[in-house]
Amino acid sequence: MRVALFTAALAAAPVLAYPGMKNTIAEIQARADADGNGPDVEDGSDSSELLGDLVTLDDSQLTAVGKSVKSLLTGGDKPESDAAYITSGRANNLPQKGSPACAADTCCIWKYIANDMTNTFRGKSGRCTDLARAAVRLGFHDAGGWSKFTGDLGGADGSIILSPDEMNRGENRGLEEIVAQTRIWFNQYKQFNIGMADLIQFGANVATVICPLGPRIRTYIGRKDSSQNCPESMLPPVTGSADFLIELFENKTIRPHGLTALIGAHTTSQQRFVDPSRAGDPQDSTPGVWDVKFYKETLGSAPARVFRFASDVVLAKDSRISKEFQAFAGQGGQSHWNEDYAREYIRLSLLGVQNINSLTECTKALPGRTGSFTAPDQAALDKWLATKDRVAKIADELRNGGNISSVINNVFGWLKSIFGFRY
Fold first, then answer.
1. How far is residue 118 CA from its own chain's centroid?
2. Which residue, of 110, 194, 258, 377, has the fewest CB within 10 Å?
3. How far apart are CA 227 and CA 242, in angstroms?
4. Per-residue pLDDT tens for 27-39?
5. Is the pLDDT confidence value at 378 over 50?
6. Contact 339/260 with Cβ under 8 angstroms?
7. Residues at the annotated binding site for heme b?
8. Where exactly are the structural domains of the chain?
């Protein structure tokens, strides 16, 4: 979020105008000076610590990826990218799976993995599925088992699946289905020398961009796997205080603004285990869509069915979080949040990784992004959101990314005829 240099450059550059440019510059400047202290990075609220081998390597030793990641971690470079393989026509540059050309291109096989993941993560309604949301959570939980005090233990190393005990921990409840699916993909593609740690983080980034409006996060391959359990008590509880949660993430080099961006991933979710009596209830009114309704509805009014996590509420009110939280909820919040989330997830996905300088960027293997979205069943969704009565069939169809119009009309019609149910 170092925009002061950018706005200064605009002032010094030749004038190039396009419709809306004045508003865009004003929005950027407003973001820079929202707290009156200039760029956010200057007030100490943005993450900027280096990670892994980048801490000790001299700039002269850095590869192109090492230089880029170092810049990303310290507030520079662009955390989103639309670089992609061309997969049709004469310009097709994706080698055939299993060919020598594909084997020679580190990223090639990951494009085929992305294709398989896309079919699993995108529902018939266009929303992302429960497995997509779980893939994002799996990425968080694998990487989040690291802090500045755990040494070589934990981090984005695949141990959440490869270790004997991590999936037995209560904090990982609900990940069983995506772990099983990730094992299937791993067994299918391990002949191509892929790693579990990479598969987990790649899956999280594929899932994020499959969710409508989600960012296309720069993605790296080459982590080292570990089957050693990560330390316990490294993940945030939904009942944690603001002080506890902020300290927990600062110990992972993630500062308050970064934490504010990361918790926005709740925008797509439907909780099942925090309150089983309300299983399937979403955390905002657009489950399966990567929008900023989560920020708006955590701060203000929301439909009856929206379930707010206690930890999200206390963070939204904390002075170290609230300004950024409100900025994401305000004008221009979507692009602001996407950029900040992408930058912070890059950091998260590299926690505990000690060979960052030797990674390969494979962003080009990701699916394309969905820049706009209108739910085909919005009217039916609004009906469901306005009630609190639990009808598992509706919640399950929504979790699967399905179009709930026919389901909700059939179920609500039956309830009305039998019980005089109103909607």
1. 15
2. 194
3. 32
4. 434 444 444 333 3
5. yes
6. no
7. 266
8. 42-49+69-365
- Kindly report the three-state secondary structure assignment for every residue of the chain: CCCHHHHHHHHHCCCCCCCCHHHHHHHHHHHHCCCCCCCHHHHCCCCCCCCHHHHCCCHHHCCHHHHHHHHHHCCCCCCECCCCCCCCCCCCCCCCCCCHHHHHCCCHHHHHHHHHHHHHHECCCCCECHHHHHHHHHHHHHHCCCCCCCCCCCCCCCHHHHCCCHHHCHHHCCCHHHHHHHHHHHHHHHHHCCCHHHHHHHHHHHHHHHCCCCCCECCEECCCCCCCCCCCCCCCCCCCCHHHHHHHHHCCCCCHHHHHHHHHHHHHCECCCCCHHHCCCECCCCCCCCCCHHHHHHHCCCCCCCCCCHHHHHHHHCCCCHHHHHHHHCCCHHHHHHHHHHHHHHHHHCCCCCCHHHCEECHHHCCCCCCCCCCCCHHHHHHHHCCCCCCHHHHHHHHCCCCCHHHHHHHHHHHHHHHCCCC
Would residue 141 show up in a list of annotated catalytic residues for this protein?
Answer: yes
- What is the CATH code of the structural domain delimited by 42-49+69-365? 1.10.520.10
* Beta bridge pairs of residue 354: none
Rounded Cα distance, 218 and 150, in Å: 26
Packed helices 21-32 and 4-12: angle between N→C axes, nearest 10 degrees = 140
Summarised one tens digit per residue, pLDDT across range 403-419 is 999 887 776 555 554 44
State how far the Cα of 285 lies from the Cα of 308, in Å rounded to an integer.
11
Annotated binding site for Ca(2+): 142, 155, 157, 159, 267, 284, 286, 291
Residue 154 has pLDDT above 60, yes or no: yes
